[in-house]
């Protein structure tokens, strides 16, 4: 099982201070040195909640491209790109190019999006997000896999579109879809190479999501074993941050040993790739996660 780290691009939550690129790059380098298999970037344009100041974030794809050059071994993924931010044919072109820059290390994660204030602020359509996503996948998948598509839909068109040159992998970078609802799960089963769900905690929190994605695969006649399973885990260290993060419903907590055991539990469920978002997002928290990663690897060797 592969293990990844979410690398934060947003301003820190407590003080809304900007994270400089030098800091982001250093964290990515350290993750690579520490033995993580992947690094993951979120795709947002801003965070805006009622009664709170706007919180900033760097643009995902520019940072991903920079980190593709700045690293050598780790896979680089998006968790996940908001579909409406980029035309799917152009995204396929961007992904093929980034895969070339990284030497075939890109995992292209996509989703329908959810954070309405950023759509409003940047003049992007928020309506019919799943309808738009369904059309986007019909452009993205063939362009990544075959390099050509002919498509005319209600929201997107791609006429005799070709991706040239093709990039380092014949079938293109793997397509990961983040999804939860019934229709999104069905689209995942139809088009995705990998499926992601989050925020997960202990391995048993995967039971219901796994049953739902397996049912979606069976509904369209796909063997569930052909879809790679990935999980975003919300990792909270109460000793370092007293207040539980509001966006973690059932966070993973515990000692280094308990976190390593949880990793093993995910592997035993057949999950292919897990990625951790640490709270607090501090050096001390990341060091504890690294210790758990190394302990898990030791456990797997014995």
Helix-strand layout with pairing:
Blueprint: E1 2-6, H1 21-34, E2 38-41, H2 60-70, E3 75-78, E4 81-82, H3 88-102, E5 106-111, H4 116-121, H5 129-145, E6 148-152, E7 157-162, E8 175-178, H6 182-191, E9 194-200, H7 207-219, E10 228-236, H8 256-268, E11 273-279, H9 283-301
Parallel strand pairs: 1-2, 1-11, 2-3, 3-5, 4-5, 5-8, 8-9, 9-10, 10-11
Antiparallel strand pairs: 6-7
Question: Can you offer a commentary on this structure?
Answer:
This protein is an alpha/beta fold and 302 residues long. The protein has one domain (2-301): Alpha-Beta Barrel (TIM Barrel). Helices cover 39% and strands 20% of the residues. The chain is built from nine helices and eleven strands. β9, α7 (207-219) and β10 (228-236) form a beta-alpha-beta unit. It is globular and about 55 Å long.
In short:
This protein is α/β, with parallel strands linked by helices and 302 residues long.
Keywords:
8-stranded parallel barrel, two-stranded antiparallel ribbon, alpha/beta, TIM Barrel, globular, 9 helices, 302 residues
**Count of domain modules:** 1
Give the N-terminus to C-terminus distance in angstroms: 15 Å
Strand order of the largest sheet: 1-2-3-5-8-9-10-11
The CATH class: Alpha Beta
């Amino acid at each position: 099982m592969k293990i990844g780290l979410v690398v934060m691009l947003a301003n820190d939550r407590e003080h809304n201070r900007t994270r400089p690129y030098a800091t982001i790059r250093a964290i990515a380098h350290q993750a690579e040195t520490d033995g993580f298999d992947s690094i993951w970037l979120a795709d947002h344009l801003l965070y805006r909640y009622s009664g709170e100041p706007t919180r900033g974030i760097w643009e995902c794809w520019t940072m991903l491209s920079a980190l593709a050059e700045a690293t050598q071994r780790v896979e680089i993924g998006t968790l996940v790109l908001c579909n409406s931010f980029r035309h799917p044919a152009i995204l396929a072109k961007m992904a093929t190019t980034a895969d070339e820059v990284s030497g075939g290390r890109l995992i292209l994660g996509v989703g329908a999006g959810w954070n309405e204030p950023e759509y409003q602020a940047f003049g992007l359509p928020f309506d019919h997000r799943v309808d738009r996503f369904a059309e986007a996948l019909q452009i993205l998948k063939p362009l990544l896999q075959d390099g050509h598509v002919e498509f005319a839909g209600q929201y997107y068109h791609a006429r005799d579109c070709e991706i040239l040159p093709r990039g380092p992998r014949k079938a293109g970078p793997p397509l990961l879809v983040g999804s939860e609802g019934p229709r999104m799960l069905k689209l995942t089963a139809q088009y995705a190479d990998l499926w992601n769900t989050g925020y997960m905690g202990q391995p048993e929190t995967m039971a219901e999501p796994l049953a739902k994605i397996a049912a979606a695969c069976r509904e369209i006649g796909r063997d569930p074993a052909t879809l790679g399973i990935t999980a975003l885990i919300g990792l909270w260290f109460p000793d370092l941050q007293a207040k539980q993060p509001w966006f973690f419903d059932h966070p993973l907590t515990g000692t280094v040993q308990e976190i390593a055991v949880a990793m093993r539990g995910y592997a035993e469920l057949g999950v292919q790739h897990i990625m951790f978002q640490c709270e607090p997002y501090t050096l001390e928290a990341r060091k504890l996660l690294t210790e758990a990663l190394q302990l898990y690897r030791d456990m797997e060797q014995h």
